[in-house]
Design a protein that fits this description.
The protein is of the alpha/beta class. The chain has helices spanning 41-48, 53-59, 126-130, 133-146, 163-174, 188-193, 226-232, 246-262, 276-287, 304-312; strands at residues 2-5, 16-19, 29-39, 72-80, 92-96, 108-112, 116-119, 154-158, 178-183, 198-201, 214-219, 233-241, 266-269, 295-300, 319-323. Strands 3, 4, 5, 6, 7, 14 and 15 form a seven-stranded mixed beta sheet that branches. Helix 8 links the parallel strand 12 (233-241) and strand 13 (266-269). The protein starts with a strand and ends with a strand. The chain binds NADP nicotinamide-adenine-dinucleotide phosphate (NAP). NADP nicotinamide-adenine-dinucleotide phosphate (NAP) is lined by residues 41-42, 134-135, 138, 158-159, 161-165, 182-184, 187, 202, 220-221, 223, 242-243, 270-272, 314-316.
């Protein structure tokens, strides 16, 4: 099979298309023919081995242990191990395989059946489904579970024109919130079209200078000070960081715990739990038309290096997707 492999950390230049043996599923695994895979910021970080946490959490200190990137995929089950009970050959599936060694930038990948993979319905394309696992779960667990967003509340989404933000706008609107979406000028129309009530171009205006105070803030960027976030929250408001550097996340955890003890404001970090149930819920919301995937560009497997460069430049609207030719 064809796969995009690498043997060292570095820029997208270290990636190359190679012919390698198609894997054989173990007893508890399914062999998936990948039809589409999302490119996530995590792939960019694991490609570069930076920030440092990537190397410290087991991806390889000096050299990468993982040759094939890609953690969000949609595809068809081609073979099943003899112990597999949940899936059959021919099932269309979608899910996240970050905890199972990645490998979606390839024609085939073996995935344990207990991984965060679920069946996908026929009315969703593979591209749409592949955009869900990481971005959709950040939005779902942020807005619904941790934010407990309710009708009439004021919600701010920082970085709202990217992968997670485009889902988060729609989810917050579906719960009846008044949504302020912050991103750059090129994404304002997109954010309005997804339902944002107010849009802010961060290159032109500082949303924190407005008088509005928010009940819930989902921040996928993580560059503003905790002092700023505290100031723009309602007295019982919640701020959650889903992205940001290691030092920013550490600051959010430390200062957030301090602020949360002394006030009714809650400031913390969203740690996404990749699970079958939430992926299935997000797919159902898409299948019923309540939310839609925002796909910026699709690239072919051999163009993964270009897709990574495109993602690394950080100006994509919604998701960047790899599609397999001849599927
Ligand atoms: N918490 C967890 O468990 C967990 C799990 C997985 C991933 N993550 C993280 O969650 C984040 C997911 O983000 P994503 O996939 O939505 O990323 P994304 O697609 O890159 O979106 C980020 C958006 O933020 C915008 N932006 C950049 N700087 C900004 C600023 N100063 N103010 C407002 N907007 C700004 C970007 O626009 P530009 O075009 O202007 O750059 C982009 O549209 C990533 O950081 C990822 O590492 C967290």
């Amino acid at each position: 099979m064809k796969a995009i492999v690498r043997d060292s950390y570095g820029s997208p230049d270290v990636l190359r298309l190679e012919e390698i043996p198609t894997p054989t599923p173990a007893d508890n695994e399914v062999l998936v023919k990948v039809h589409a895979a999302a490119v996530n910021k995590g792939d960019w970080e694991i490609l570069r081995g930076s920030p440092l946490w990537v190397r410290l959490v087991g991806f390889g200190l000096m050299r990468p242990k993982i040759r094939i990137l890609g953690s969000n995929l949609a595809g068809r089950v081609e073979a099943v191990g003899k112990g597999v009970a949940q899936f059959q050959v021919g099932d269309d599936i979608c899910g996240d395989i970050l905890e199972h060694g990645l490998g979606a930038f390839a024609e085939y990948v073996c995935v344990p059946e207990h991984a965060a993979i679920v069946r996908k319905h026929a009315n969703l394309s593979f591209e749409e489904a592949a955009s869900v696992p990481e971005a959709g779960l950040i939005a779902l667990q942020g807005i619904r579970d941790k934010g407990n967003v309710k009708s009439g509340q004021k919600v701010l989404i920082n970085g709202a024109g990217g992968g997670a933000g485009t889902f988060a706008i729609q989810l917050a609107k579906s719960f009846g919130a008044e949504v302020t979406a912050v991103d750059n000028s090129e994404k304002l129309d997109l954010m309005r079209s997804l339902g944002a009530d107010h849009v802010v171009d961060y290159t032109q205006e500082d949303f924190a200078e407005r008088d509005t105070r928010y009940d819930f803030i989902l921040d996928v960027v993580g560059v503003r000070s905790i002092k700023t976030w505290k100031r723009v929250l309602q007295p019982e408001g919640i701020y959650l960081a889903a992205g940001g550097s290691v030092s920013q996340i550490a600051r959010t955890l430390l200062l957030g715990a301090w602020i949360s003890r002394r006030t009714k404001k809650k400031i913390g970090v969203l740690g996404v739990n990749f699970n079958k149930k939430d992926i299935a819920t997000t797919l159902e919301l898409m299948e019923s038309g309540q939310i839609t995937a925002t796909i910026d560009r699709c690239f072919r497997l051999q163009d993964v290096p270009e897709a990574m460069r495109y993602l690394g430049a950080e100006h994509s609207k919604g998701k960047v997707i790899i599609v397999m030719s001849g599927r």
